[in-house]
Amino acid sequence: MVVLVHLGFITWVITGGFLAIRWWWLVLLHLPTLVWGVLLEWYGWVCPLTPLENTLRTGRDMAVYDTGFIENYIVPVVYPEGLTREIQMAMAVVLVLINAVAYWLVIHRNFLKR
User: Fold this and answer.
1) d(Cα 17, Cα 100) in Å, to the nearest integer?
2) What is the DSSP string of 76-90?
3) DSSP summary character for residue 71
4) I need a labelling partner for 71 at 20 to 30 A (CA). Which of 28, 88, 108, 110 fits?
């Protein structure tokens, strides 16, 4: 369940701005999570869901991983060679750029077209 929440959070951080095009009030929920997601990537911090997942895995005698969720589940598919700081920082920049487009559309549709 934690893995699904983790994946949902990542998806929300990446795409939540586009949902705000339709429902502008989602900006209030999305912006703080976007900032958190960018900071996690930029500084290489570990998401709090990762230790929680590892704790739950330990309690069930499952293998734990000593990297983050992205490094363990996403990186092997997207970046087979491993996640470097430079890639993480680039991911943060891409995250900002994707959401800059989304928020430009939010502003244009909801506030400038009136």
Assistant:
1) 8
2) HHH-TT---HHHHHH
3) I
4) 28
